[in-house]
Design brief:
The complex is a heterodimer of chains A (about 140) and B (about 525). In chain A, helix 3 (about 95-105) packs across helix 5 (about 130-135). With about 140 residues, chain A is of the alpha/beta class. Chain A has a single domain, classed as 3-Layer(aba) Sandwich (Rossmann fold), CATH 3.40.50. In chain A, strand 2 (about 30-40), helix 2 (about 50-80) and strand 3 (about 85-90) form a beta-alpha-beta unit. Chain A contains five helices and five strands, in the order βαβαβαβααβ. Chain A has helices at about 15-30, 50-80, 95-105, 120-125, 130-135, and strands spanning about 5-10, 30-40, 85-90, 110-115, 140-144. The longest helix of chain A has about 30 residues, at about 50-80. In chain B, a hairpin with a 5-residue loop joins strand 1 (about 160-165) and strand 2 (about 170). In chain B, helix 3 runs parallel beside helix 21 and helix 12 packs across helix 19 (about 410-440). The relative contact order of chain B is 0.20. At the A-B interface, helix 2 and strand 3 of A face helix 6, strand 2, helix 12 and helix 19 of B.
C-alpha cells in the first residue's frame, strides 16, 4: 500500500504553509497527498423549518462554493508546479473529520497549519491543531 | 374562503378605525373579542358537537379511536421500536457521506419546537382546571397512543413529498392525500387535500398563533400589571413581521437555540418542585387515578376528566393533526419509515414528559381547592375548579410554580414568550405550505398569508381566553378529521414499509455506521 499523507486546507495562509510542507514530505517519501477541506457542520444544531427545507440545496451550494473558491485554485496552482493531489470536501466537526479521513485513506501522517492564537481566544474557541494533536491516530505535524 | 377573506379585510379595517379613533383600550379589546367570538362560534359548535344522546364530543372519540387503531394495526409499534428510534436520533444509522444534510436529530428538535409550546404550560393547566387531576391520566394515555398516529403521518409525509430541482422539498398531508390516493386509485384525494389546507390555515392562525399570543399576554400582565392586550399583540406582531416578512432569520435562529434549553430548564424545575413536595406523592397519584375513573365533583365527572385530558393532549402533541408531517417531510432519508420512527418520540417528549410535569406541579402544590368535608373539588360558577389565587390557564401554572419557587414565574414569562414565539414561527411555516398549496407557490401569495398571520397575532392577544382556545382547538381538530381519513386509507402503505424495513434491519442489510 502506497504511503499517504493527509493535509488540511481551508484557504488560509497557515493552511497554505501546511500544504507546502506536505508536498515536500510527500515527494521525499514518494507518498500520495490527500488535501481535505472540512466545512464545519454539526448534526445536533437547531434549525428553523425553513432552514430544514433549504438545507439540501444549501449543502450543494456550499460544496460547489468550497470547491470553486478554495480547492480548485489550489489544485490548479499545484498542477502548474507539477504536483498532483487528491482533494475532497467533507462536512463535520473539523478535527474528527480529519481523523476519520486519515483512517479511511490509511494515512501515515496528518499535516495542519495553525493560526497561533494564544490566551483568551484560544481558550474559548479551542484550536484545530491542538485538538488534533490530542486525538490524531497517526503522527501529526503542525506547521506554524 | 373568499367570503372569509372579505370578513378578515373588514375586521382589519374595523381594527384600524379603532386604532385611529379615541376608543379606550379596554373597549377595543372587548370589540375584538366580540367580533371574534361571533364569527367563529358556529365552527366551534360543529367541531365540539356531542355524540347524539351523550355529552361526549365526537371529535375526541375520533382522535382516540384513530390512535388506538394505529397502535393495534402496527402492533404497538411505539413500544417495539423506541430503542431503534433513539439510535436513529443519535445518528448511529446515518451515512457519513450524507453529513451536511438535515439529521434526524434536527428534524426532531425543529418539529418539537413547533409542538412544545403553550399547550404544555397553559393547555395542561386548562385541562387540570376543568377536568381535575384525573385528566392527567387520560392525557398520558392519549400521548402514548398518539405516538402511533404521529408515526403513521410522518412516514407518509416523507414518502409522498414533492422534491423540486432546486433541492427544495414540500411535503405534508396535502401531498400524501393527492399522490397516495392516486397511487391506490382511491378518489377524493384532491378534495381532502384542499379541505386539509383550509383547516391548516385556520389552525395556523388559531392554535399556532392566537392561542400563543393570548397566553403570552396573560403571562406578561401577571408580571407587569394589567394592560390592554392589543399592545402585546402589536409588539409580538412586529417581531413576527420582521422575522417572517423582513427575513431577519437571526431572531428565529436564536429562539430555536434557546427553546430546547428552556424546555430542559422547565422540566428540571418541575422535577425539583415535585421533589420538594415528595411527601404528597401518594396523595397526588390517588387523586390522579381516582379522578380518572370516579366522579370527584368536576363538571362531567370522570368523562369530563377524560375529555379534557384527551383534548389537551391532542392539542399539545398534534398527533394525527398532520402538522408534524409537514415539518418532517424535508429530511433527506433513503427510508421514509425512519422519519416515522423518529417522530414517534415527539408525543412522548411533549405529552408524556413535559405536559405531565406541568400537571404534577399543579397537583403537588395543591392549587385546586378541595372541600374538606366531601373530598370533592369546589367548583366555581363557570364550571371550572376553584383555585387558590382564582387563576386559570398559564396563570395557574405560574401560581403553582411560584408557590414553591417565588422567582420562577419570571423565568416562566421568558419561557412562555419564547415557546409562543417559536410555535408561531413553526406554524407560520405550516400555514404558508397550506396556503401555497391552495393558491400556488409565489412571493406575493406568501406575503398575503404572512400579513394575515401578523394581524391575527393582535387579535389573539386582545381576545379573551375562552373564544380563542375554543377556536384554536376547533381548527386543529378539524385538520385531524381530514388527516385521519387519509391515514386510514394509506396505512397499508406504511405497514409494507415497516415490515420491509424491520426485516432488513434484522437481516443486517440496514447497517449501523457506528
Amino acid at each position: 500500500m502506497p504511503n499517504t499523507i493527509v493535509a488540511a486546507y481551508d484557504g488560509s495562509a497557515a493552511a497554505g504553509r501546511a500544504v507546502e510542507v506536505a508536498i515536500t514530505r510527500a515527494s521525499a517519501a514518494d507518498a500520495k497527498l490527500v488535501i481535505v477541506h472540512v466545512l464545519e457542520w454539526s448534526p445536533y444544531s437547531f434549525l428553523t423549518p425553513e432552514e430544514i427545507e433549504e438545507r439540501h440545496g444549501r449543502r450543494k451550494e456550499e460544496i460547489s462554493r468550497a470547491e470553486d473558491t478554495i480547492l480548485k485554485p489550489l489544485i490548479a496552482d499545484l498542477a502548474r508546479k507539477g504536483v498532483t493531489v487528491e482533494a475532497m470536501t467533507r462536512f463535520g466537526h473539523v478535527v474528527e473529520t480529519l481523523v476519520k479521513v486519515a483512517r479511511d485513506v490509511g494515512a501515515s501522517e496528518i499535516i495542519v497549519g495553525r493560526t497561533g492564537q494564544t490566551g483568551f481566544a484560544a481558550r474559548i474557541f479551542g484550536s484545530v491543531a491542538g485538538s488534533l494533536a490530542q486525538i490524531a491516530p497517526v503522527p501529526c505535524t503542525i506547521v506554524p | 374562503m373568499i367570503q372569509r377573506m372579505d370578513a378578515r379585510a373588514l375586521s382589519i379595517a374595523a381594527l384600524l378605525t379603532l386604532l385611529a379613533g379615541s376608543a379606550s383600550a379596554q373597549t377595543m379589546d372587548e370589540t375584538i373579542n366580540g367580533i371574534f367570538a361571533a364569527s367563529t362560534g358556529w365552527f366551534v359548535s360543529f367541531i365540539f358537537a356531542p355524540i347524539p344522546g351523550t355529552n361526549f364530543a365526537w371529535i375526541v372519540a375520533w382522535l382516540v379511536i384513530a390512535a388506538s387503531i394505529f397502535t393495534l394495526y402496527f402492533g404497538f409499534i411505539q413500544f417495539r421500536v423506541i430503542r431503534h428510534s433513539l439510535q436513529l436520533v443519535r445518528g448511529d444509522y446515518s451515512d457519513p457521506d450524507d453529513a451536511g444534510e438535515v439529521s434526524h436529530f434536527q428534524a426532531l428538535t425543529t418539529a418539537l419546537s413547533g409542538t412544545v409550546g403553550l399547550g404544555n404550560i397553559a393547555g395542561v393547566a386548562v385541562a387540570i382546571g376543568i377536568g381535575g387531576p384525573g385528566a392527567t391520566f387520560w392525557m398520558i394515555l392519549a400521548g402514548l397512543l398518539g405516538m402511533a398516529s404521529k408515526f403513521t403521518e410522518c412516514t407518509l409525509g416523507v414518502k409522498y413529498r414533492n422534491e423540486y430541482p432546486n433541492g427544495m422539498v414540500s411535503g405534508g398531508p396535502m401531498y400524501y392525500m393527492t399522490k397516495g390516493f392516486a397511487e391506490k386509485g382511491v378518489p377524493g384525494g384532491r378534495f381532502l387535500a384542499i379541505l386539509f389546507s383550509i383547516f391548516c390555515i385556520l389552525g395556523a392562525l388559531g392554535g399556532g398563533n392566537m392561542f400563543q399570543a393570548n397566553q403570552a399576554h396573560q403571562q406578561l400582565t401577571g408580571v407587569f400589571g394589567d394592560y390592554p392586550g392589543w399592545i402585546t399583540g402589536i409588539i409580538f406582531a412586529a417581531i413576527v413581521f420582521i422575522v417572517i416578512i423582513g427575513g431577519v432569520k437571526s431572531i428565529a435562529q436564536v429562539t430555536e437555540k434557546i427553546v430546547p434549553f428552556m424546555g430542559i430548564l422547565y422540566v428540571g424545575t418541575a422535577l425539583v418542585i415535585i421533589l420538594m413536595n415528595i411527601g404528597s406523592i401518594g396523595w397526588a397519584f390517588t387523586q390522579i387515578f381516582e379522578g380518572a375513573f370516579t366522579d370527584m365533583g368536576i363538571t362531567g365527572g370522570a368523562i369530563g376528566a377524560l375529555i379534557q385530558g384527551f383534548r389537551r393532549a391532542a392539542f399539545s402533541n398534534e398527533a394525527g393533526v398532520g402538522s408534524a408531517a409537514i415539518a418532517h417531510s424535508a429530511v433527506r432519508t433513503k427510508e421514509p419509515i425512519t422519519e416515522g420512527f423518529v417522530s414517534l418520540l415527539e408525543p412522548f417528549i411533549d405529552t408524556v414528559v413535559i405536559c405531565t410535569m406541568t400537571a404534577l406541579v399543579i397537583i403537588f402544590t395543591q392549587q385546586l381547592m378541595i372541600d374538606p368535608e366531601t373530598g370533592l373539588y369546589i367548583m366555581n360558577e363557570s364550571g371550572t375548579i376553584a383555585t387558590i389565587g382564582d387563576t386559570s390557564g398559564v396563570g395557574l401554572t405560574s401560581a403553582a410554580f411560584g408557590s414553591a419557587l417565588s422567582w420562577f414565574p419570571f423565568v416562566l414569562v421568558i419561557a412562555v414568550v419564547l415557546f409562543a414565539f417559536s410555535t408561531m414561527i413553526s406554524w407560520s411555516y405550516y400555514g404558508i405550505k397550506a396556503w401555497t398549496y391552495l393558491f400556488g407557490e409565489g412571493a406575493t401569495q406568501e406575503l398575503i398569508f404572512k400579513l394575515i398571520f401578523c394581524f391575527f397575532v393582535i387579535v389573539g392577544a386582545s381576545a379573551s381566553l375562552g373564544p380563542v382556545i375554543d377556536f384554536s382547538d376547533a381548527a386543529i381538530f378539524a385538520m385531524a378529521v381530514v388527516n385521519i381519513v387519509a391515514l386510514y386509507v394509506l396505512m397499508p402503505v406504511v405497514k409494507r414499509e415497516v415490515n420491509s424495513y424491520l426485516r432488513r434491519l434484522k437481516s443486517g442489510e440496514i447497517k449501523k455506521y457506528r
